[in-house]
Amino acid sequence: MKTPLLQFTEKGIYCQQANVYLDPWKKVDNALITHGHADHSRWGHKKYITQHDNVPIIKHRLGAIEATGVNYNEKIIINNVTFSFHPAGHIPGSSQIRVAHKGDVWVFTGDYKLHPDGLSVPYEPVKCNSFITECTFGLPAFKWRPQQEVFNDINEWWKTNKAEGKTSVLFGYSLGKAQRLIKNLDTSIGTIYTHAAVENLNEVIRPHFSLPDTVRITADTDKKAIAGNIIIAPPSAHGTPWLRRFAPFVTATASGWMAFRGARRRRAVDRGFVLSDHCDWNELLTAIKETGCEKVITTHGYTDVFSKYLQTLGYDARTEQTQYEGENAETNEENEVTS
Fold first, then answer.
1. Which InterPro entries does the entry mention (predicted)?
2. Disulfide: which of 38, 128, 178, 268 matches 107 by Cβ 3.0-4.6 Å?
3. Alpha-carbon gap, residue 40 to 25, rounded angstroms
4. Domain tally for the chain?
5. Directed axis angle between helix 177-184 and helix 147-163, to 10°?
């Protein structure tokens, strides 16, 4: 039986012909990395290859690593296998990875979304025979509203809070979601203040992507100056002494999980905005159709439901277990809280 071009192993997604792994979850010699979230870019590999905008991000998060950057659509050949990185639209520096050998073409999406966010390089469909896709929100119930409508709601919420003399606190994970929020806020309302974990990544991302001005919160920041403005902070800051000193404030979370009834209550926030950096149900189906693929492998998310539905559409679809966690991992990884 012919060995598939990409295999799912205990260390990660493996290309035997080239002896490289894609987003491996255990230590390997050669790792191709789709983006900077912790479940996809892990510490301990000998060599990293990623899209060049992602290099400073993973170095910031992982420390002194040997990382090589390549441009989108640039081809690299390893032992007669051709690899290239293509925009995933997920967060700044995110990619899909195309793998081709002897006419067999695979695409590994990592995490991705089809709707432009005004910050990340927009997703581009890549033709292939086999498509490895996340399905974090792979249920028909997930259907995202247009981004501008969501930000109209967020900005109106901020205006209302300011008029009532309260500070707005908006939670979003420090890599990707926080910058998307900052990019699309109406700065005519007031000043954007940031938690240190967010601002550290703003400084890494700013040389490559345009962001509005923000103000880092430090121990010397005057609470009176912040009043009525907006704070962007990671979810881990919720309920901490760091945050309580800025009372009175109103809290909100921006996440795809806010589409679930009760999610806002479980996270103990005053408001929830449905805003995800992943595909909804229709985007997943559109992405698969646009690749022209015959085979689909579903990874993290609602894998069984989604793959079974794809089978009814005529795709050769199956699931594979990985250690990727989608938006759960991106929320849970935030652990940098400044006292």
1. MBL, RibonucZ/Hydroxyglut_hydro, Xnuc_lig_assoc
2. 128
3. 7
4. 2
5. 70
Burial class (CB in 10 A: 0-12, 13-18, 19+), 59: middle
State how far the Cα of 9 lies from the Cα of 22, in Å rounded to an integer: 11
* DSSP one-letter code for 176: T
pLDDT for 338: 36
Q: What six digits make up the tokens of 89? A: 């639209």
Provide the CATH number for the domain around residue 167.
Answer: 3.40.50.10890
**CA distance linking residue 339 with residue 218, whole number of Å:** 9
Q: Assign 100 to helix, strand or coil.
A: strand
Q: What is the pLDDT of residue 265?
A: 66
- How many other CB atoms are found less than 10 A from the CB of residue 83? 21
Tell me how far apart the alpha carbons of residues 96 and 125 are, in angstroms, rounded to a whole number. 9
Q: What is the DSSP letter of 102?
A: T
8 Å CB contact between 35 and 205: no
337 located within any domain: no
pTM score of the predicted model: 0.94
Mean pLDDT split into 10-residue runs, the chain, 339 residues: 92 98 98 97 97 98 96 98 98 98 98 97 98 97 97 98 97 97 98 98 97 96 94 95 94 93 72 97 98 97 96 97 77 43
